[in-house]
Amino acid sequence: MQNTSKSSFTSVRQDFPVEQKLSVSGSTSDCYQVRLYGKLHFLKRLKPSFRTHPQYVAALQKEFETGYLLDHPHLVRYVSRTDDGVLMEYIDGLTLDEFVRQYPDYLRKRRHADRFLRQLLSVVGYLHDHQIVHLDLKPANIMMTRVGHDVKLIDLGFCYTDTYADTMGRTDKYAAPEQKDGSSLVDARTDIYAIGRILQTLPCARYYNKVIKRCTAQDPAKRFQTTNDILRKIRQIALYHRIILSAVIISTILLLVFWVFFRPQTAATDPATPAAPSSSSQPDSAASSSTTSSSSSSPSPSSSQPVSEVSPSSPSPSPQSIADAPTSPSPSPSTSQPVSVSPTTSSPSSSRSISDADLEKRLKTVITPVFQRVMGSLNDSTWNNHTQMMFSDRSIPLLEQCGDAVRKLWRDLSKKYDIDERSYYLMYSRVLTTMENNLYDRMLKNGRSPQ
Fold it and tell me: Which among 209, 50, 74, 81 has a CA at the least distance from the CA of 149?
């Protein structure tokens, strides 16, 4: 009987040489920082008022037995069970709500928000793949490491598993309707509802309005069905915003180029702009035209040579021809010829159209090498937690490198063809999204589909 008592969670507490109570304690348990063999750990103990309560003792037992079998970079690692608690790896960081208060601008940056959400979805998806529903997702159970600001999910005390189906706790602010009223069984979509509620409280909420709206739908059937669906959606949103940003930058550059090169030409041909006085001793074009007109009936010796040689049978020279006549001393009549310069007209090069099929082919030509370089190693992979993280982490570098290649192609094609810029970038979005979806489907076929 004595040995059995010592092995339970309600038995005599185990002391550690270094023990410090932490502020991250929950409603039913206290957390301590302890040192074991020179290494820091978390120790989670039930509060004194709960240590004799069978349900909370069982919850702590469940948390250890469930967490001890799991291994994910964004999930706290469970080390061992003590006489009166659970020993976990130490996380040097802050809970999400504390982190936002201390660093209010961090998640306002889109790249930081996307990184945070990808890591959270990765670890929650990992739990779902192992038939575990967390059921208590909230900022207090999400830690952000001090170095790197990585996500660490904690507290599996209220989770649902195949062997521990009875759950007894929740946080009403983040709990789904079916979790509150028991109208239906909880599943992965219950955690997805909580993710939407968490996003609503963060500075990055404006980036994910559509994601939040679908995550927090009252009807579970109208929510995202898996975390992979959310990941796919945020990749599409990121691609869309990059396309819009690229279009704005290109449009601004085109407007600046147009202003620089065409504005001086417009000013030079403006009728209201007075002509610059000529430095030559000869009269200006208008005066020459007037003099020529008056002297055509009675030529004088001082008349210009080209005008004096016009015979009655020859066509009358245009005023422009006269204005452009040479002002140097006249050569001999036998060699002198009237000079006629026609006005210079810039005829725009005729633009040619390009078919959608040819445009798509050209886009694939520049996107495919980049896609193979960034994502090609996943072609023969199966879809699991590790490859899912690789797939997600490579999506941003893929967009950046494809964007450079596609913008260069746009510069080349827009010089030769009449292409609508918006249609061009929409087709780019479709081509790249199709490639990603094909790779995703191929990876699913190589292994089992996510639950």
Answer: 74
